[in-house]
Each structure stands twice: as structure tokens, then as C-alpha cells.
Amino acid sequence: MALDTLALDYVIGLETPRTADRVIELTDRVFGPGRYTKTAERLREGSEPVHDLSFAATTGPKGHERLMGSVRMWPIFIYDEDANVREPLVFLGPIVVEPTHRGLGIGKSLVRASVDAAFQKGLRAVLLVGSQSYFKPFGFNLAEGIDMPGPVDAKRVLIRYRDDGLHFHGRVVKVI
Q: Would you tell me how many other CB atoms lie within 10 Å of the CB of residue 63?
């Protein structure tokens, strides 16, 4: 299938109620039912995405936009039992791009927008489960000392801190 030229002229904006259903449909279509078995999904289950940190990439005329991709952020916190401290964070994902339009930078634009917005909002870190090779250029590193609920490959648990010198440790807890 050939790429249409409109795909190169996409707009990144906050997810809206109008795009929310299409985001779920695209995510289900791209990732399939297997995504519901992952630990990352347990952090999203029963929670609402953080609306001012969740973005959609669209193309086309206003009112008739076509969804090209999305990224959502979810409220979590890291609980340090030793210090009895809860640090609010967000959990990034899933990042989903229309399969026929991958490789155009849409996913990267979505990641940048969501991480920048999280830090502008005052959050001090963003956590995700993903590929080190993809997320390293965005400043994500191994989330050492952070325990996820459920089974997950520790080499895929990544964090980006807003400021150098920050380091959180503890247990990840979802916000409901």
C-alpha cells in the first residue's frame, strides 16, 4: 500500500473526546488482544489517561481528521517504603501509529510532545516499558531500583528524569 502525501502533514495535538474512541480502535487493531496480558496493561486497567498529557497525530481537514497515531500517559506513583514517600509520575504508552505510516517520525513526535508536556506540568519523571534502542535518544535509561507489579523484563523498564541527579526507587503503584 502506498503512503498518501497527507500523512507527511500531520498535526500533533491533545487527544480529544472525538479522537478517544478512534485511539482505542487503532490500539486494538495494531496490538491485538495480546496487549491485555501484559504487565503494562495492569497499570492502565481501571484508570483514566491523563488527558492533558495524551496526544494524537492527525491529518486532513478540520472536522474530518484522520488519526495517524497516539500516545497516552497514565497516572502512577513510585512508593518508597523505607522513606514512606510517594512520588507522582506518569506511565507512557502505548504509542501506536497507523501501520501504513510507520517510519515517518509520527511516533517520535508523539513521544517528544508527551514527555515535554509532563515536565512542563511539573512531573519529575516518566516511566515506560519499551525498547532501549528506540527510547535512548529521548533520554530514557534503565529504571534501576524501580519494581513493576507483575512480570516484566527489567531491561525494558525505562525512565527519564527531568533533572540530572534524580533517582527514585521503590514500587510502582497505579492511580485509580
A: 6
- Strands (E) across 82-140 are located at 85-97, 125-129
C-alpha cell at 63: 472536522
Contacts with 76 (C-beta within 8 Å, 6 or more apart), sequence order: 43, 88, 89, 90, 91, 127, 172, 173, 174, 175
pLDDT tops 80 at residue 23: yes
pTM listed for this prediction: 0.90
Is it true that the peptide bond before 33 is cis, omega within 30 degrees of 0?
A: no
Q: Can you tell me the distance from the alpha carbon of 24 to that of 125, in angstroms, rounded to the nearest whole number?
A: 25
Q: Which three cell numbers stand for residue 160?
A: 527519564
pLDDT in tens, 31-74: 877 666 677 888 888 899 999 999 999 998 887 889 999 999 99
Highest mean pLDDT among 44-58, 110-124, 146-160: 110-124
Measure the CA–CA gap between 168 and 176, rounded to whole angstroms. 21
**Beta strands 157-161 and 141-142, pairing class:** antiparallel
